[in-house]
Amino acid sequence: MLTHLTTTSPAAVLLARYRSVRAATMRFCAPLTPEDMMVQSCTEASPVKWHLAHTSWFFETFVLAEFVANYQPFHPDFRWLFNSYYKALGEMPEKKLRASFSRPPLEQILAYREHVDARLCKLLEQTPEDELLRRVVLGLEHEQQHLELAATDIKHAFFTNPLHPAYASFNAEEFQEKIAPPLEWLSFSPGYPVRPGVVEIGVTPDPKAIDSFAFDNETPRHNVYIAPFRLASRPVACAEYLAFMEEDGYARPELWLSEGWDTVQANGWQAPLYWRRDTATKSGWSVFTLRGWQPLGELSETPVCHLSYFEADAFARWSGHRLPTEFEWEFVAAQRSVAGNFLDSNHLHPQPGSPTAPTPQQLFGDVWEWTQSPYTGYPGYKPLPGALGEYNGKFMSSQMVLRGGSCVTPASHSRATYRNFFPPATRWQFSGLRLARDGAS
Ligand SMILES: [Fe+2]
């Protein structure tokens, strides 16, 4: 056992965090109608109602069912109904059917959340064992992942709706007179002079430290070779991406990876997701945001987002540079504090950089930054035992790593070692890019 429950015991701290994270999910849902919560508008997305149930299912399945003697499930069908992809636990409904879950009704899903909350909190008020605490921490990180997914899924749902409803109202002052600082190149020579090029990346968790968390895919800490490189001081802005478009970036096959070019042709892409031609605006484009349609001119200094890996890579090639590796990114980010434009700041969209902030800036928050690194296991990687081993490891093929978090990532869910990953054609997340180049001078 870790310790008895005091106001500062790990269980007490975790109990407060549990309540805070679960409340954040419900706060995000406050402006949504029950009908909004039913929409599943693209293959990547799930209905918000499903997210509410599935995150509760995670706690019920991996904590309550395993650590409470004679635990009675809230509903016997929920164990398979709200399983996402854990095949070790049995069959589950196809993902594309989640929008057909008009039953169970939303009230029952909310009652399910309350049922799980009551029992989980009771458990944490006792003297829980370390493994239980670790599972709760994992469940909270999982809940935060799904909160971010709910934000991006509802954005796509509202974009697809012919009425294009806004999740929140627009505040014009947010963007007025904000100009992105000039892009500077910052030089890095990792490991010099002691171990030129050799740096440590990733995490080897302390099994006794409940309050420090890393997913299994961030482990173990290991040596990586990084040649001297330069990294851009901020992410690429919309105005810079528009220049790529105006130089026929989407029509020049020499700029694209073969699979990227095929994807552009197959989908008719001519701009990032959520951009549409709009002759009523000066720039000729409008952009759909969680705060409704905005003229591109209002957002031109903000980091460009909703790009696929292929678009980020093509832009980098057009600019004469490249995407950073995930190791270059982490090497730089590990020297900075985790602060930025996250969900907690409620902008709900990337913000322009600051002319006075230290550089590099906007590493954390605003937009996930595509890296040129494929998503694979680190040397010595071991998935978690049992069904939880399916959380990350089985997705280590055909996906690319993104780093840094976005404007809809909960702030406490971000860290320098965090590895997000998506297939290279994915655009519905707040995904953008930061440029890199070889050589420190
Ligand atoms: Fe999940």
What does this structure look like?
With 441 residues, the protein is an alpha+beta fold. Helices cover 31% and strands 11% of the residues. The protein has 10 helices and 12 strands. The chain has helices spanning 10-29, 48-67, 78-81, 106-125, 130-160, 238-246, 258-267, 296-299, 309-319, 326-333, and strands at residues 185-188, 198-201, 222-225, 229-232, 275-277, 285-289, 292-295, 368-374, 400-403, 420-422, 431-432, 436-438. A 4-stranded mixed β-sheet has the order 10-9-8-11. It has a 3-stranded antiparallel β-sheet with strand order 1-4-12, with helices on one face. A hairpin with a 7-residue loop joins strand 5 and strand 6 (285-289). Helix 2 (48-67) packs parallel to helix 4, helix 2 runs antiparallel to helix 5 (130-160) and helix 7 packs across helix 9 (309-319). Mean pLDDT is 95; it is low at 1-5. It binds fe (ii) ion. Residues 54, 84, 142, 146 line the site of fe (ii) ion (FE2).
Instruction: Please state the average pLDDT score.
Output: 95
What is the number of beta strands?
12
Q: In terms of per-residue confidence, which ranges show pLDDT below 50 for 5 or more consecutive residues?
A: 1-5
- Give me the strand/helix succession: HHHHHEEEEHHEEEHHHEEEEE
Rounded to the nearest angstrom, the distance between the terminal CA atoms is: 54 Å
Number of helices: 10
Strand order of the largest sheet: 10-9-8-11
Counting helices, strands and paired strands, the structural category is alpha+beta
Q: How much of the polypeptide forms β-strand, as a percent range?
A: 5-15%
The helical percent reads: 25-40%
Backbone CA Rg: 22 Å
